[in-house]
User: Fold these one by one.
Assistant:
Number 1:
Amino acid sequence: MSDRQVILLVDDEPDQCDLHQATLERAGHTVRATTSPKLALNMLDDVAVVITDLQMEEMSGLALCERVHAAAPDVAVIVLTGIGSIDSAVAALRAGAYDFLLKPVDPKLLLVAVSRSLERHQLRREVAVLRSTATLQGTAGLLGESPPMKKVHELIARIASSAASVLIHGETGTGKELVARAIHDQSPRAAGPFVAINCAAVPPTLLETELFGHAKGSFTDAKVSRQGLFVQASGGTLFLDEIGEMPVEMQAKLLRALQERTVRPVGANIEVPFDSRILSATNKDLEGAVAEGRFRQDLYYRVNVVTIELPALHERGRDILVLAERFLRNAAERNGRPPPTVPSNVAERLLSYTWPGNVRELENCIERAVSLARFDALTIDDLPERVRNYRAETFVVAADDPSEILPLEELERRYIARVVRLLNGNKSRAAQLLGLDRRTLHRRLERSAEAAKTRDAT
Ligand SMILES: Nc1ncnc2c1ncn2[C@@H]1O[C@H](COP(=O)(O)OP(=O)(O)OP(=O)(O)O)[C@@H](O)[C@H]1O
Ligand SMILES: [Mg+2]
């Protein structure tokens, strides 16, 4: 790295400053010096190493060390200490100092300590660079280069390191859980647990014990006390999936827990603190649920400090083919055969279908196609009927043949999806042109997405 490696000397005795500065400059280092620790804190730009005296009037070397460590963790601090204050040197090491030297300082030892610190600074920076590339690889599981997916990747990278609660919103099968994992994996909590709970799948009566735990004997089956998921996720991330399905009484308890950062296990009269980051997901229109009184507004604001809006698959253009390739390779591997190729007529069908079940539907479709494929290339016949027969135009033309007759609901779904696509995913505008309010449009899309999910399951 070509950037300058500046060493900052801090000592309230000007003579000492001059002495060390001369030693370091003779060895070819770039040195800045100040007699004021407070000023030193404003001089940290491009500094690699800080060398500070421990006993200073204005601010102790220990306090300086703590503040440098907090402001610029990759800056190495060396403290200079008299034989009588070894204790404070040890305290300084605890506060993040890298090394200490006894006074009077031996110039040779000073130079050795400085070059070691510079090396460590360099290493730290390399690790930081590596970590940011690893981060990119971390989201590699989440495929997609289309403009709306690029935005999602950028947002994940930006918010992963913060503690903010994130609400992930998107139709069924758009990858909400995958996004939650990507946030966790890129966060400083990556080494901690990732705990997920599907609020819709747990019976309401059990949700409270699941989340908060319970005390011994609090109900008949409870022989032992159990930790709730909030506490289990401490040091890591708690993912509240389908939060829109949470019963209202539970919402009040959740809100309280999030405000107090403690939970009260069922049947216990103590508060247990937790330290987990909260991510939630929903495919429902939560704002609508708030307006209709089915979801608490105060809770909505708490879980929704940041929103990640996942685009529907049909809004992602050629991402469809990128994903199809990946699923094709995975499925072929599982079937122990080379992946079939995707000829352009098949690709075209994949691109024009509306994918109401989104990425999950595509994944199922490709898996099925691979197991059916008889040749080295996929054919239209390997696709499920609804994809094979889908023609974007069918909703305008009258059926010529009884086999082309569509249920009205399907017709409506295709038309809505087509309009949304035509408007580049702008659902408000689509609702306006269709003469629906936005909420109704959402509900209709949701309903058809759910229908697709049931179709997939059968
Ligand atoms: N961008 C993506 N890249 C690769 N795989 C994806 C992507 N998005 C989703 N998938 C895959 O699609 C499937 C569905 O994703 P996921 O379970 O995260 O969706 P979801 O939004 O949580 O769905 P639901 O609302 O039904 O719970 C998973 O197998 C996931 O691995
Ligand atoms: Mg999910």
Number 2:
Amino acid sequence: MDLKSGYPFWAVRNGLMTAFPKLQQDVKCDVLIVGAGITGALIANAMTSAGLKVCVVDKRDVAWGSTSASTALLQYEIDTEMQDLRERYGDADAVLAYRACAAAIGKLQKLAGSLGGVDFQPMKSLYYASHWYHRQRLVDEGELRRQNGFKVTTLDRETLKACYGITASTALLSEVGAEMDPYQMVHKLLRRVRRAGGQVHDHTGIAEFKTRRGGVVATTGEGCRIDARYLVMAAGYENERHLQQKVARNRSSYAYITDALTGSLGGLDDTLVWESARPYIYMRRTGDNRVLIGGEDDDIDVPMRRDLLVLSKAKTLQRKAQKLLSNLDLTPAFAWAGTFAETEDGLPFFGAHTQHGPRVLFAMAYGGNGITYSQIGSEILTATVQGKSHACSKLFSFERLKRI
Ligand SMILES: Cc1cc2nc3c(=O)[nH]c(=O)nc-3n(C[C@H](O)[C@H](O)[C@H](O)COP(=O)(O)OP(=O)(O)OC[C@H]3O[C@@H](n4cnc5c(N)ncnc54)[C@H](O)[C@@H]3O)c2cc1C
């Protein structure tokens, strides 16, 4: 599957940080993790810390899938507003999902601190009304979140203009959010996994897997056999190939980055910015004072078309972003695009699917806050392998499909 168009910024900036060996012999382990993107890396780290023996394989270089294309805004705010989730699943589950995401950011911060050098920065998050007729919806959303303990301020037009230079009828300003370099995070996590006794192999694709009593047997493209008690499919958007049931929809998403700017970026210095329209435009700064802007999603993902559109989409993003932040030079220096999958309700899937039975666990961190979901998934799947449950196990399982 062609996951990206152009060379993503993180890989170009960081280069090939670590070379992991190709698997060349049979292996026995507790958990085979297929996929060394941010999801596989967080799961491998969580499972290793829990004392499990893991083997991580990736058919590409480590972090070379969607993770290298990610703009890596870390938000507790799900693409589906809390009020919409409440309508679908009731108060308790809507609040559970939002709280889990907020907690995940704190956990990612702790993890990033322990690894060092992954450009992790706590940020605020500004969600502005794209249209005047979204105003009441945002006011209600802010109220609902505050009732449930989230620190959210509803900004009026004047305050928004004065603090952020953005013209809109209202916006919600949240205290919880962050940004990081997802590529460095993966490399550093997997080095840690390896130091703790786990195995990590790139350029090692899983050609097939079969369940057997008490476990799974997988075979690599080059014929090595891996015996594991559990198989975790952290294969990103390629996971869908292994399920007959359609659980998500693929789109193309576009992004670009500016050159490093001198001086203050105004509100962007400490705030992630996104909007209430769907698809939405979003912005953040990077550790080296560039502005990263993304959005302009296509409804379907056609890699050839995506390749052709990268530059014109970057220009459209620039035009829209420049309208909001006229004082900054937002000229694109580098643009790229990637596949991006979304579920119907904006929530991820973590766990077993009836098609493969209880020993094959899927990690589908799909949606706008994929990375935040990956953190939650690492906890859910570690608990599952340990025979424990997690507060989000049920809500983020395939069982939810019966309720959609
Ligand atoms: C343009 C763009 C912007 C985004 N912005 C954000 C954002 O701001 N915030 C956010 O939270 N999320 C964002 N996302 C989503 C986020 O990037 C993804 O949720 C995340 O990177 C998915 O990580 P992953 O590890 O699940 O998948 P991947 O990074 O794709 O990793 C899966 C790995 O599995 C490997 N694999 C697949 N099949 C096999 C096989 N058979 N054998 C061996 N290996 C295999 C692949 O080679 C790949 O490396 C964005 C995505 C895109 C494309």
